[in-house]
Write a structure and sequence with these properties.
CATH class of one domain: Alpha Beta
Number of strands: 9
CATH topology of one domain: Rossmann fold
Helix content: 40-55%
Shape: globular
Distance between the termini: 24 Å
Structural class: alpha/beta
Strand order of the largest sheet: 2-7-1-8-9
Number of helices: 8
Bound molecules: guanosine-5'-monophosphate
Strand content: 15-25%
Order of helices and strands: EHEEEHEEHEHEHHEHH
CATH architecture of one domain: 3-Layer(aba) Sandwich
Length: 204
Amino acid sequence: MQGSILVLSGPSGCGKSSLVTEILKSYHDIYFSISTTTRDIREGEAEGVNYHYITKKQFEEEIEEGMFLEWAKVHDNYYGTSLKPVKAALDAGKLVIFDIDVQGHEIVKKKFDDIMTSLFITTPSADVLRERLIHRGTDSMDVIEKRLLNSREEMQRIDEYDFLLVNDIFDETLKKFKAIVDVSRMKIDKKSKDNFINKWYNES
Ligand code: 5GP
């Protein structure tokens, strides 16, 4: 049995984590891929819940050992997706959700295009994003400026995604997000399609 993949990208602070948290409450056959990062743990985050937090040296060793399905440097820190748990979840027929940046999306798409759906989430404007990041109060102004700069570049790549969600009113966005989750669970890999075609010709 082969599962499917939903890749989420979008600026830090656009609401991806809150949407995923809500979805995980009502769906039990979804695996959220917990990335590994070298960035500092934020207030309210926990090891093994939001990320696995390791040092730069450890991260570079894991790259050497081929532990990552994909990894990227974002805002001066490493972020990466471990291969093993993703493979196990796909083998168990689950929908795997990734919260990864545009670089990660490009790599995952190359490897899993036939079972993958992609969604870019953002705020109604750059100003709203700035306000949300300041209001969140988890990053210094210096870090916020870096994130805003990065988000401007990421916005240029929206066209590479299947869907765009503008997170203005959270409950409305959540409804649309649920619809996209349902659709992405229906993606079938090429092998299953070929099997079906053979069966279609040969069964009465
Ligand atoms: P944050 O520091 O706000 O949690 O995440 C910063 C950025 O890193 C976000 O755009 C997020 O999607 C991205 N990111 C988180 N985990 C991964 C990962 O495993 N791989 C890649 N390529 N990007 C990631």
